[in-house]
Amino acid sequence: MDEEVSWFCDLTAAPPPVARDYLGLTERNFELAINLYFEDPELYSNLVQSPLEQPSTPCLPLLDVAGPYQNLVLNRQRAEIRLVTILPGRFPDPIKLKLKVVSLHDSNLSYQALSYAWGNNNAPRHILVDGYSHEIIGNLFTALSRLRRSSKSRTLWIDALCINQINITELLV
Questions:
Q1: How far apart are CA 127 and CA 139, in angstroms?
Q2: Single pTM value for the model
Q3: Where is the Heterokaryon incompatibility domain (predicted)?
Q4: Residues 44 and 84 placed together within one structural domain of the fold
């Protein structure tokens, strides 16, 4: 079955580094653009929308833009965060994760936080998050491989997975 692929050049939902690179902005100019996003969202939207239907620079495919986050919206008033559970597996098995929303007010809440160096993304790896293929950097893949247990799941907070990296508002909260 052939899946229809559409492309978007509206970068309002793109990860910040993708938007920055696509627009050809320096770090400083991109920082100014982010500030503009909050001060004048309409102007920001007009600046980052490309009029091209078939861009010369590839945009992002709209297959799983929302991915595992689409039904896991956070409620900041309830102090909600996402946690990721590493499902059990052995070394050669694909890494499979489950995301869930929890409240920091839950007295039974138990998790560990992973701190690691993001590094570069020269060798991205793929994992499964709630059944969606998800690209991560090599350092995180190595950490997940080493933290995964063979017969017991493990619950963690990992910034690159628990924060929706394609949602600018969520990134900046």
A1: 13
A2: 0.62
A3: 111-167
A4: no
